[in-house]
Specification:
By secondary structure, this protein is an alpha/beta fold. The protein is built from 8 helices and 9 strands. The chain has a 7-stranded mixed sheet with strand order 5-6-4-3-7-8-9. Strands 1-2 form a two-stranded antiparallel sheet. It is globular, with a radius of gyration of 20 Å. Bound molecules: 1,4-dihydronicotinamide adenine dinucleotide.
């Protein structure tokens, strides 16, 4: 199957495969059948075979999957072997948490700069990265050519800032700001994160369960 026709749902499941295979590797397991993998992951064996067949299928009949090889291949498909340069805008509560607790490098990114407009935060450090004045953003982008911006600013600031960032050459956003991008540039990629959505799904499942009881 051509890579550009792989469904978004399959792509969304790949990080979970990657994570699971990492856990199995850490437990010293070297190979696994699609049935065993499906039982551990709560998916059907045919779902797993279908998903992995989208990329040419890595298993061998009667052997199953070699965990390290499969994880490596999924990592390559996810682009984790490439180092994308990321900057983070908004060094407040969320920005600090993301910059301090996420292992960007494990996921194919290197955090190379953090920006804010609050004089109290400028020149403070988060994980050895100095928070720079947002006024230096254009110069920094010209010099270091970051690929991605992580937006941890309020929605009200995101419109103007994202336009500036695009004009400075940023072509991908990890957007926590709740701002709805309306993109005219087809090459710009946005991955929106709304933690609240996940909480609302939990709420839905709680309501469903409670109504059944
Ligand atoms: P915060 O107020 O602690 O941090 C925001 C930071 O952005 C501040 O340091 C502020 O100085 C900076 N900032 C504001 N305008 C700026 C500009 N034009 N240029 C540079 N820096 C600027 O807020 P917090 O708690 O970190 O949340 C940030 C945003 O993320 C909020 O809008 C919040 O609604 C959103 N959020 C989103 C979540 C999600 O799941 N997507 C979860 C939690 C928060």
């Amino acid at each position: 199957m051509a890579k550009d026709s792989i469904s978004k749902l399959v792509i969304r499941r790949l990080p979970r495969y990657y994570r699971f295979l990492g856990d199995l590797d850490a437990m010293g397991i070297t190979k696994i059948s699609s049935r065993e993998l499906s039982e551990r992951m709560g998916l059907t064996a045919s779902q797993i075979r279908q998903d992995l067949n989208c990329f040419g299928g890595f298993g061998q009949q009667g052997y199953g999957y070699n965990i390290l090889d499969l994880r490596h291949e999924i990592g390559k498909i996810l682009g984790l072997n490439v180092e994308n340069k990321a900057i983070l805008i908004g060094a407040g509560n969320l920005g600090k948490a993301i910059a301090s607790h996420l292992n960007f490098e494990k996921m194919g990114f290197k955090l190379i700069g953090i920006f804010d407009n609050d004089p109290q935060l400028i020149d403070t450090k988060i994980m050895d990265i100095k928070v720079s004045d947002i006024k230096n953003l254009e110069m920094f982008c010209e010099k270091h050519k970051p690929d991605v911006a992580v937006l941890c600013i309020p929605k009200s600031a995101a419109n103007l800032l994202s336009e500036k960032l695009i004009s400075y050459g940023i072509s991908a956003f990890w957007n926590f700001s709740h701002y709805d991008f309306r993109l005219s540039n087809q090459d710009v990629i946005v991955e929106n994160v709304h933690l609240g959505d996940s909480l609302m799904v939990l709420s839905y499942n709680l309501r469903e369960r409670n109504e059944k009881q």
